[in-house]
Design a protein that fits this description.
The strands form three sheets. The chain has an eight-stranded mixed beta sheet with strand order 5-6-8-7-9-12-10-11, sandwiched between helices. Strands 13-14-17-16-15-18-19 form a seven-stranded antiparallel beta sheet. It has a four-stranded antiparallel beta sheet with strand order 2-3-1-4. A hairpin with an 8-residue loop joins strand 18 (about 510-520) and strand 19 (about 530-535). It is of the alpha+beta class. It has helices at about 1-10, 15-25, 40-45, 65-75, 85-90, 105-120, 130-135, 175-190, 195-200, 215-220, 275-290, 335-345, 365-370, 405-420, 425; strands spanning about 30-35, 50-55, 60-65, 80, 125-130, 145-150, 160-165, 205-210, 310-315, 320, 350-355, 375-380, 430-440, 450-455, 465-475, 485-490, 500-505, 510-520, 530-535. The protein is built from 15 helices and 19 strands. The structure holds zinc ion.
């Protein structure tokens, strides 16, 4: 691992020029050597404006070039050769995953197109802006792209939205992978898993998997690039240049992280609020998709029935974060704390107000909540160190490894946020239904099915209220006109603890049906539904 990283770091020195050249020419990039023995030779070489590395080996200078350029130099009498070893070691953006499987920027873009082709009725791929490099020069940089997941055939008015973004900090390699895994999971499980199915029928999941593609391209060579590629201030190195996009949002911009801070610092917020195209793209997307639900004063809450959940994916630290970041004022919707604690129950992360990590301003989650009243969160995946720790764990840590297994660990968290997005401040306070099974009781009448559900109001750091009621719905979920509640009973006779098993029977017609279950706590909050399919084949197996 360590040797591999060192190799990547060495290669990383090539990248900035390489990434630009590969866009400007069809010819493969190679590493050339040019021998320079005298000052006059050096002056001649310098006049060729080669893409020189910032080091030399004896009399040789190394540079990124093409075969055509080498022939041209040879014809002019220069002593040039190809460095085969270094050429072989060049990264190949757009063709290979890296570090065992992480998708590159290009592969992530291709992946979105593949999903759109494979699931046309469940997807809408869109472009919401251009990266900083692309704004400067259309032949560089990338389009900023996202995907909206919802059953487009199921047009039922305003579907609530869960928006999740990955890769705002380029070196946090795990986060775009978590975002793309969510896309794959929901689409491939539509019609298979009942929860994935109703989430796409009834909600919209907007995923922005690659927030900072310019920066990510540098990070893909193993360099610890965090910010975007705006190098207009400070004369910083490639790795340290740029604006921290998660300090550049316009809400409370410049309060903690200030424009007078050193521009080469990793949390520099830029010269003005939302100065970066990556930031304005997402801010506009948030404003276009969510209503403004919060009054201006920072101590005033959004209404209880405010809609929408927003999640910004980061690493590392094993944290679930909620507003605010700038000071110790608790968010006026203290439900944010409860939701973070309920989410953290799934992955065991520490749910804290962002300020408890360190002070921040101009962040994404504070914009989503502060500007619009959307329930805004951040999540920090993974340990700071160890075999699956740090910004760049091996790809295998997505599915295993000590301190890893990120996808299995965090999938339930993402699905939880997706489930509560209709009215997070009410639904997020309610109990969750953790398990739900359906079976045919022996000798039961035609169409009668037994349900058994485990419902709990417990959260990380909170015992929760007692369960007060549990109910089931067949085919029509509780928020839809025409839904019919079927009360379930406590298996032990009484709903009087924060975790209960509920049982009961429902009548279900022949064929495939979906059954929803939800619980209510003693404070009167209904939690999110969990669903299960009953499928015994049309016209059979129902007797
Ligand atoms: Zn981060």
């Amino acid at each position: 691992m360590k040797i591999f990283l060192i190799l990547l770091l060495a290669l990383g020195a090539f990248l900035p020029v390489f990434a630009q050249d590969s866009k400007q020419t069809e010819e493969p990039t190679i590493v050339g050597r040019i021998t320079v023995r005298t000052d006059s030779e050096m002056r001649r070489v310098m006049a060729q404006a080669l893409d020189l590395m910032e080091y030399r080996e004896g009399d040789d200078l190394l540079f990124l070039t093409t075969q055509t350029e080498l022939y041209r130099l040879e014809a002019k009498g220069f002593e040039v050769t190809i460095d085969q070893q270094k050429t072989a070691e060049l990264p190949h953006p757009g063709t290979d995953t890296f570090m065992g499987g992480y998708r590159t920027v290009e592969e992530t873009a291709t992946f979105l197109d593949q999903m759109a082709t494979q699931y046309p009725n469940l997807t809408e791929v869109f472009t919401y802006g251009q990266s900083w490099l692309k704004v400067q020069n259309p032949s560089l940089g990338y389009d900023l792209r996202g995907i909206k997941l919802t059953n487009r055939n199921n047009r039922i008015g305003n579907k609530p939205i869960f928006m999740v973004q990955g890769g705002i900090h380029a070196r946090e390699l795990v986060t775009p992978e978590e975002a793309t895994r969510l896309i794959e999971y929901l689409l491939s499980n539509y019609g298979v898993d009942a929860d994935a199915t109703w989430l796409l029928d009834e909600h919209q999941i907007i995923v922005l998997p690659m927030y900072n593609p310019d920066g990510r391209k540098i990070a893909e060579t193993g360099q610890l690039k965090r910010k975007n590629m705006n190098n207009t201030t400070g004369g910083c190195s490639i790795v340290n240049s740029g604006i921290d996009l998660n300090r550049n949002y316009s809400f409370s911009w410049g309060v903690v992280n200030m424009p007078t801070d050193p521009p080469c610092g990793e949390t520099w917020p830029g010269l003005t609020a939302s100065s970066e195209p990556e930031t304005t793209g997402i801010q506009n997307l948030l404003i276009a998709n969510f209503p403004d639900q919060r009054p201006a004063p920072r101590d005033q809450p959004a209404p209880l029935d405010a809609t929408g959940v927003f999640l910004d994916l980061h690493s590392t630290g094993n944290l679930v974060l909620y507003p605010w970041g700038q000071d110790n004022l608790p968010p006026p919707n203290l439900q944010l704390r409860t939701i973070a604690r309920k989410a953290a129950r799934y992955n065991g992360y520490n749910p804290i107000q962002t300020i408890q990590l360190y002070p921040t301003s101009g962040t994404s989650q504070d914009f989503a909540y502060g500007e619009l009243g959307v329930a805004g969160f951040g999540m920090e995946t993974g340990n700071g160190s160890g075999s699956c720790g740090g910004f760049m764990p091996p790809y295998s840590c997505m599915d295993g490894g000590t301190g890893g297994n990120f996808w299995n660990l965090n999938r339930p968290v993402l699905l939880y946020f997706a489930k509560i997005c209709r009215t997070p401040y009410m639904t997020g306070e309610g109990p969750v239904t953790d398990s739900l099974t359906i079976s045919r009781p022996p000798a039961a009448r035609v169409g009668i099915y037994s349900l058994r559900a485990q419902v709990t109001d417990a959260a990380s750091l909170e015992a929760g209220q007692n369960i007060a009621a549990v109910e089931a719905y067949v085919d029509v979920p509780p928020w839809r006109v025409g839904s019919v509640a079927v009360p379930l009973a406590a298996e032990d006779g009484n709903f009087n603890t924060p975790t209960e098993y509920a049982i009961g029977t429902v009548h279900v017609g022949p064929g495939k049906h979906i059954i929803f279950v939800r619980g209510r706590d003693a404070a009167g909050n209904w939690g999110p539904v969990k669903a299960v399919f009953k499928n015994d084949g049309a016209g059979q197996g129902d007797g």
